[in-house]
Amino acid sequence: MSDGTVDGLADSTGSTDGAGNSGTPVGRHVGSDAASSSEAAGAAPDSPQGATEREVAHEQDYLDQLYSRLDDIRSRAQKTLDEVRRASSSNTPAGRAEKDAFDALHTERLAQLDAVEDRLAFGRLDMSGGERRYVGRIGLSDEGQHQLLVDWRAPAAAAFYQATAASPGGVARRRHLATRGRTVTGIDDELLDAAGLDAADLTTVTGDGALMTALTEHRTGKMRDIVATLQSEQDQIVRAPLTGVLVVQGGPGTGKTAVALHRAAYLLYTHRERIAKSGVLVVGPSPVFLRYIERVLPSLGETGVVLSTPSQIFPGVEANATDVPNVAMLKGDLRMARVIREAVRQRQLLLPKPVPISLDGDQITLRPAAVAEARSRARQTGRPHNEARSTFVKHLLDDLAGQLARSRRLENDAETRLELAAELRDSIDVRREINLRWMPLSAEAFLDKLFSTPARLRAATEGKLAKAEARLLQRPAGSPWTQSDVPLLDEVAELIGPDVTATAEAARERARAAAERAEAVRYAQGVLQMSGEASAMMTADMLADRFEGPGGSLTVSERARDDRTWTYGHVVVDEAQEVSPMMWRTLARRVPSRSMTVVGDLAQTSSAAGASTWAGALDTIAKDRWRVSELTVNYRTPAKIMRPAAAMLTATGISVRLPESAREGDWEPSVLQTPAEPGAMAEAVLKAVTADEAALGGGQFAVILAREEVLGEVSERVRKSLLAPEYATLADRVSVLSVDDVKGLEYDAVTVVDPVGIIAASRRGASDLYVALTRPTQRLTVIHHGKLPKGL
Ligand SMILES: Nc1ncnc2c1ncn2[C@@H]1O[C@H](COP(=O)(O)OP(=O)(O)OP(=O)(O)O)[C@@H](O)[C@H]1O
Questions:
Q1: For a designed S-S bond to 568, which of 281, 378, 416, 597 qualifies (C-beta 3.0 to 4.6 A apart)?
Q2: How many Å lie between the centroid of ligand 1 and the Cα of residue 772?
Q3: Phi, psi at residue 782, to the nearest 5°?
Q4: Residue 700 in contact with ligand 1 by CB distance below 6 A
Q5: SS3 labels along 744-757
């Protein structure tokens, strides 16, 4: 395990000096200077208010110290960067690459230090023995290496999340610090073991308001980290061991996404040596969702993470189209792996009858038996199509060279045949005849051709799919790529391999690169030692990566994103219930170690190819290597909204274990009935949104409708009306979305339009409606014409 420190930032062993630069443990009493500030403010010094003010003043002093230390470290990092930029590099490619690499390293480090500015410290633990620990986004130590702040991911900070009154684990008091900018705005204490504190301490204890404050804050359209208020059951998942597939199942709003992202940050910190170099991939359902979560990991100081939707996971292909549900379901079915395998095999052809070839007056023949033998040898290598092709070609050239030797009356030994094979390679006729039997392929062209050529499709699917199913796959050549084509492209690419025309040359290249690499690592180790660089933030391997090659200063994530065969140290899959079996195969290829965090809710499955059980989803890629953890508390949706949402789902026959809401909520959901006419519905929507704005005085709102083709006119009218001057303050804060787009998102207030229409629009319409109803943090309005769905 790494110690997770950077130069000047504290280690994570958890040893702490409590407050002050002196490094000596301080007692549990607050300082007298803070007391005088409360007197100046007019509160009686021993009243609860006076005590709180003293404590706030004390925490302010401490926070000032932390920021001053952070500023020091930052300015040192800036100075080093300036020096790197000023220094002249040796004018060689290696020298320039090295300079670029250092530049990128220090720039990234500065970005990481900047990212922790907001809410640098958010907690304090007072241990029963008198020790005090401040918990924050990073570890910080003073010049004398005394710890000022413990990184939230360090073992010493675990008690901050795990201690409860029933099992305090040596913690007497847990304190949350509320801050704005660099100012302490409040404290919130929980007493876990009162015996460890004296009477004066007790006057400031108020309970766990920090969580409630976080839950009821207006949303901003971007997910925030929850590092200050992670709850015990969530923290256990964050800190769970790295190996195997960890499934996090939980109802809406239980923090699955938040927990998965914090887990990624935790794993990068704790196992930096093992996974930072290969990176972490986070897969989320849509670009809108990725934009919603994109700030969480940087705010936790982690930038080397690749975010992708399933549609973007095949480099070079943007799969923006969608298939109709039954086609999507078929393409996600594991039988497609067999279809693709067969289709590739059918591009390795036999020869029906001999083909004569003349070569400078010599007559030779491409023989059916030789082709059959070459094909079976090539297949036996087990290599992908494009690589196995060299075995196929070699064998046939050898056979033809033997014939040529005989025709020229040369000795038929290996050496002669090798020479003649070189000559044969230069003949266009020979190359054409051999190529026709075993062409080099590219994944995109191959799949396009397969789906647009009925005869090929029939041959590849025979005995594997029903005839009617095979017809579903058929489409014109050059059709746009759909989301469900992506795992098929990946399957093809895996079976045909990269287009290697000169394998021997490639092998030589690999050996040369390996030798250079060893040298680069040795050099980087020396650099790290000399510069005293942070071992945890940057390993010698990572630094060597940057010294190497033309893309020397590319980050891990930049390299990984463009390389289909890149294997990650850990993969997080969000909204995993939507992932098809074929897509699981693709994701599994990205992480051979199967170190994965898979989060989802089976009750929210809406895609036709999605999962109904975790075993169905995961057994084929990680049999016996997956385990499930549950989250049970809904932090988003108040109970007043959850109850009808759950009743609706239950009434449709879907049985789920409902999470308990952390809040009852202030508003009952409202229901508005309108005529089925678009103008009337749009008007009702605007009325609902205006009422939300008046009730909440700000925040983010969503209007959720069935897919555009169903309610296009209503959404069009709503969007248009929002441009009118009377909605000027609202326009930017209202999103009009279809049920497909709201997966994983949340809003202060939500208006759901035509619930019966949403249910009717797809096979899993009830789950879609459940997703829509569970998006609000405060208020829900349902607009309907005709009847309401059962249970609602
Ligand atoms: N411990 C916590 N402290 C503060 N806020 C929290 C906590 N846990 C969850 N939340 C908040 O609850 C909301 C829901 O979290 P999140 O989106 O991660 O849930 P989810 O389980 O992925 O939901 P869904 O499946 O419905 O998309 C977010 O605003 C998140 O910040």
A1: 281
A2: 15
A3: -115, 125
A4: no
A5: CCCEEEEEEECHHH
Residue to probe by mutation, ligand 1, list 227, 257, 658, 780, most atoms within 8 Å of CB? 257
Which residues define the annotated binding site for ATP? 250-257
Where does residue 535 fall: left (phi above 0), alpha (psi -120 to 50 degrees), or beta otherwise?
Answer: alpha
* CB burial readout 197-224, b (16+ within 10 A) else e: beeebebbbeeeebbeeebeeebeeebb
The answer, yes or no, to whether ipTM is higher than 0.90 is yes
**Is 231 a pocket residue for ligand 1 (Cβ < 6 Å)?**
yes
Which of 638-643's residues contact partners 24+ apart within 8 Å by CB, and which partners? Answer: 638/663, 638/664, 638/665, 638/666, 638/667, 638/777, 638/778, 639/663, 639/664, 639/665, 640/664, 640/665, 640/666, 640/667, 640/668, 640/669, 641/665, 641/669, 641/773, 641/774, 641/776, 641/780, 642/252, 642/774
- Nearest-CA residue for atom 15 of ligand 1: 255
Taking every pair of C-alpha atoms in the chain, what is the biggest distance, in angstroms?
A: 115
Find tokens 């080099």 and name the residue: 440
Distance from Cα 745 to the centre of ligand 1, integer Å: 10
253 ligand 1 Cβ < 6 A: yes
Q: Say what the pTM is.
A: 0.82
Q: 683: CA distance to ligand 1 center in Å?
A: 32
- Interval between CA 309 and ligand 1 midpoint (Å): 20
What does DSSP say about strands 183-191 and 596-600: parallel, antiparallel, or unpaired? unpaired
Q: What is the mean pLDDT of each run of 10 residues along the chain (792 residues)?
A: 39 32 27 35 60 89 96 91 76 70 80 88 92 94 92 94 85 92 91 64 54 82 89 93 94 94 94 85 92 90 87 90 92 96 96 92 94 96 94 95 92 90 91 92 94 96 95 95 96 88 56 65 56 46 54 63 85 93 95 94 78 88 92 93 92 82 92 90 92 92 79 83 85 88 92 91 86 96 90 82
